[in-house]
Write a structure and sequence with these properties.
The chain has ten helices and twelve strands. It is of the alpha/beta class. Helix 6 links the parallel strand 2 and strand 3.
């Protein structure tokens, strides 16, 4: 009753709950023991009594086991089946108990392994923490050593020029321009990236006279260049294209000079400007002659001595290909034995070529007599003598089969079309280039074209130096 009261009232704290649990367990064990006792003791006694008293009712005999009536026999079989079931259940219980014990032993072993793994993990964590501490200390020590022995280095700050520079002191003469006194290096620091600003020629009057093919090729090249910038205020170099002009040329030098001086970033003298003339025509190849370019650099293929500034102006090759590049992959054989001629030359000098060339004296007579009045005649006589000697296979032609190309007055004009000249140069080991006889002319577009074509087909260019009135007599030579 007391236990029931405590169970009903919920017990008195944790101690009451423990007592109630113990009391309920004892009641369960008592009832279980009592039930097992009844089954194991009374059931065999009843069975034994039943089996021994079955034969007493049989008057025919006193046997314990004998033939039974149908109902009695069924009861015996039922009891035997129950016994067999009990035995099989007992065996299964024993097997299950054995398996349970095996599983418990395996669980115990696995628990031990888990505990060992936990300990190893803890040890590994401790070791990892120690290694991290060692690494951090080592890195700190390394940084301290590097800070002590090596100064802090970084990329230089990019310096950009000012929008309006103060300018340079003017040189004594325009022909005295060199890079050190006419080019403003302050606009081109090493960290600026060398920005280049390209003028749009269409915004100026002379842009309408430019050849569309040349202008298109120049603009495509400028767009593909990584140095070109759209910000003219930070530019180091300013580039403007003025040629090649279309025919006929109606732009006078004074008009071109005025337009150049009115460029937005000309800054009174045009320093850091590059004026490009890619013309190859005789009437426009020296378009900037008699044009005051100030401190701007001039890039073209024709220069007179009075306008060329050594180390400042640029000599460029003439515009041989406007939109396409030459195919240098298809070069003919370079071995001299596979080339027919030792050297070749084709050209015509209309103004200085004399009609009496066929009646010129032999080379030996000229060496013994007075020097000729025209040094071109001396070169022609020398080359004719080499050709007539037949010691080597050479080809020299001083008269064009067709109409010669337009050229400067003292320049050897090109003969035939470009493809015909290239085919002849492919058969030549050397390509002879005769410079103009005018001493005022430093380089011409025709000579530059001959040089470019010779290099294109792998012929070695060789120069024949002609002299004008200012040269010494007898010193014209073939090199």
């Amino acid at each position: 009753m007391t236990g029931y009261t405590m169970l009903r009232n919920g017990g008195a704290g944790n101690g009451g709950q423990t007592c109630m649990l113990r009391w309920s367990n004892r009641i369960r064990l008592t009832w279980l023991s009592f039930t097992l006792f009844v089954i194991l003791v009374f059931f065999p006694l009843i069975a034994h009594y039943y089996l021994t008293t079955l034969d007493e009712a049989d008057e025919a005999g006193k046997r314990i086991f004998g033939p039974r009536v149908g109902n009695e026999l069924c009861e015996v079989k039922h009891v035997l089946d129950l016994c067999r079931i009990r035995e099989s259940v007992s065996e299964e219980l024993l097997q299950l108990e054995a398996k349970r014990q095996e599983l418990n032993s395996e669980i115990a072993k696995l628990n031990l392994k888990i505990e060992a793994c936990k300990k190893s993990i803890e040890n590994a964590k401790q070791d990892l923490l120690q290694l991290k501490n060692v690494i951090s200390q080592t890195e700190h020590s390394y940084k301290e050593l590097m800070a002590q022995n090596q100064p802090k280095l970084s990329l230089p700050i990019r310096l950009l020029p000012e929008k309006d520079d103060a300018g340079l002191p003017p040189p004594k003469a325009t022909r005295g321009c060199r890079l050190h006194n006419c080019f403003d290096y302050s606009r081109c620091p090493l960290t600026s990236g060398f920005p280049v600003y390209v003028y749009d020629s269409d915004q100026f009057v002379f842009g309408s006279y430019l050849d569309p093919l040349v202008k298109q090729a120049f603009q495509a090249t400028a767009r593909a260049n990584v140095y070109v910038t759209e910000n003219a205020d930070i530019a180091c170099l300013y580039v403007i294209l003025v040629g090649e002009m279309q025919e006929p040329v109606v732009l006078r030098p004074a008009e071109l000079e005025k337009q150049l001086h009115s460029l937005p970033h000309w800054r009174t003298d045009g320093h850091n400007h590059v004026i490009i003339n890619l013309s190859r025509k005789s009437d426009t190849q020296n378009l900037l002659y008699n044009v005051s370019t100030g401190r701007a650099m001039v890039a073209q293929s024709t220069f007179y001595a009075v306008q060329y500034r050594p180390g400042f102006d640029l000599v460029v090759s003439p515009l041989v290909h406007a939109m396409s590049e030459p195919n240098f992959m298809e070069i003919p054989p370079q071995v001299p034995v596979k080339r027919k001629y030792l050297f070749t030359f084709q050209g015509e000098k209309i103004e200085s070529l004399r009609s009496s060339l066929q009646e010129a004296r032999s080379f030996e007579e000229e060496m013994e007599g007075d020097p000729p009045a025209d040094y071109d005649d001396r070169i022609i006589a020398t080359l004719k003598a080499v050709q007539d000697s037949k010691l080597d296979q050479v080809l020299v032609e001083f008269t064009c089969k067709n109409q010669p190309k337009p050229s400067l007055p003292t320049e050897w004009a090109l003969c035939g079309e470009r493809e015909d000249r290239l085919e002849l140069l492919k058969l030549s080991t050397f390509a002879l280039i005769i410079t103009p006889g005018d001493p005022r002319l430093i380089i011409s577009s025709g000579c530059a074209t001959r040089l470019f074509e010779a290099l294109e087909v792998g012929a070695c260019p060789g120069g024949a130096r002609g002299a004008g009135p200012a040269s010494l007599p007898g010193h014209a030579a073939v090199e």
